[in-house]
Amino acid sequence: MMSFNTLARFDGRVSIECPTPVLPLVSAMSGVEAITARSRPVAEDTFDCYVPLLSLPHVLDFRAADLPATCPYVLATPSGDSSFSARWGNGLKIGLIWSGSAFDRTRNADLAHFLPLLDLNAKLVSLQKEVAQDEEQQLSDHGIENAGSAFRHFGDTRDAILALDAVVTVDTAVAHLAGALAKPTWLLLNEPAAVRWMMHRADSPWYPTMRIRRKHEGEHWREMVIDVTREIAREM
Q1: 153-156 contacts: CB < 8 A, separation 24 or more?
Q2: How far apart are the first and last CA of the chain?
């Protein structure tokens, strides 16, 4: 968001071409126009200049010290048709995601590794979009709500996260969204992790409410989740 605000100072119109599932997030940001990504590229004469989103920090010469870590930078207001808060009621509510895309399977854990969270006096909610049949059965057997399977887009994911007290997740897009919403987030990484999480850090300059736990050789996901469970029990 800092990059968008910097571009806006040039008194130009800032447009972002983004996939349809992300439109509810981008369209809610002030100072930018959301354009749906299509199979055919947007005509070059539509803009005076364009740049890949992840190249902006380099183009604008940002450094880690320049990051304001101001969150939430995604609009932290649920949509009008959100019913998650009413549905889940009071009490501690924890969202979980144990697996992301198949792009890098080393980031992914198994649902069974996250079951120590059941020791919390809390309602557990799966934010997982893609859930296998055996995982659906496990969720049902343990009384974990399978909310993510019904999400239509990231606007629904945002609304669900806003109704939760914390999120425990592996390295997925939802980890970024939870951090951008300033939700207490425990991120579980398998080392070596993606460069965006830097090295040896237990925090993130992007997301001040995020805590990073790193799985090194010989460690196990379940042990990490047990430690996180104890932290949540102490602090929430």
Answers
A1: 153/20, 153/21, 153/22, 153/23, 153/24, 154/21, 154/22, 154/24, 154/25, 155/23, 155/24, 155/25, 155/79
A2: 29
Q: What is 179-195 written as a DSSP string?
A: HHTT--EEEEEESSPPG
For the chain, which residues make up each domain, given as ranges?
2-63, 84-235
- Rounded to whole angstroms, the Cα distance separating 24 from 62 reads 27
Q: What is the pTM of this model?
A: 0.89
In 3-state terms, what secondary structure has residue 141?
A: helix
Per-residue pLDDT of the chain (236 residues; tens, 9 = 90+): 545 555 656 667 788 888 889 988 888 877 778 888 777 777 777 788 888 888 888 887 877 777 766 788 887 777 766 789 889 989 999 999 999 877 788 899 999 999 999 999 999 999 999 999 999 999 999 999 999 999 999 999 999 999 999 999 999 999 999 999 999 999 999 999 998 899 999 999 889 999 999 998 889 999 999 999 999 999 99
* Bridge-based pairing state of the strands 210-215 and 185-190: parallel
Superfamily designation of domain 84-235: Glycogen Phosphorylase B; (3.40.50.2000)
Sheet containing 123-126: give its strands across: 145-146, 123-126, 93-97, 166-170, 185-190, 210-215
CA 197 from chain centre, in angstroms, equals 13
Token output for 57: 């920090």
Collapsing DSSP to helix, strand or coil, 200 comes out as coil
